[in-house]
Design a protein that fits this description.
about 190 residues, mainly alpha, two-stranded antiparallel ribbon, 7 helices
Length: about 190
């Protein structure tokens, strides 16, 4: 019954041996107390959640949705934008490709289907539990260990470059602060 609640690219660290580690403590219970709409959780905090019936819930299915959003961002080699999640997610997923050294191939159909289910693009087909999502992912992933690490390394470097460019553009678009006098003129 334990869930993290705030899985996003900035909270995932890749160790030198290729293992993924989530940073920060479990945030779900505290975040759930905010009672935001699922759209507001994304817009203000960058937290992807499945569309709820009633209040947003931070449970294992929310973690699955968040992991799928991270996976999609890695496949795109850029973060998901505010206007893409949640309303344009199907189009974004449909445009995603499996980037390789020698070009781009369409995502394997099984992986695309897994992402659609994990992201709750079609809520009736969504995974009912984290165990179901893990079992299905284990079934469809047949990547050789070394090739997977090479792809991960390549994907992470493109993602880091996109994040750096986004930060640079954001810092350049901020207006310079106007210094205020310490005391009023007499």
């Amino acid at each position: 019954g334990v869930c993290h609640g705030a899985i996003s690219p900035e909270r995932v660290v890749v160790t030198p041996d290729g293992r993924l580690v989530l940073v920060e403590y479990i945030l779900g219970p505290a975040l759930e107390e905010m009672h935001f709409s699922w759209e507001r959780y994304w817009r203000e905090l960058g937290i992807a959640l499945p569309r709820p019936i009633g209040l947003s819930r931070f449970d294992q299915t929310a973690d699955v949705t968040q992991m799928a959003a991270v996976a999609l961002a890695l496949l795109l080699a850029r973060p998901l934008s505010d206007d893409e999640y949640p309303h344009k997610l199907a189009d974004v997923l449909d445009s995603a490709t499996a980037r390789q050294i020698d070009g781009s191939d369409p995502l394997p159909a099984a992986l695309r289907t897994w992402l659609r289910r994990a992201l709750h693009i079609e809520p009736r087909a969504a995974f009912a539990s984290a165990i179901e999502a893990q079992t299905e992912l284990d079934r469809i992933l047949h990547v050789q260990h070394a090739a997977g690490r090479l792809s991960l390394r390549s994907c992470l470097s493109r993602y880091a470059a996109a994040m750096a460019l986004e930060r640079q553009m954001a810092s350049q678009s901020k207006p310079e602060p106007v210094p205020m006098p310490l005391e009023a003129p007499k």
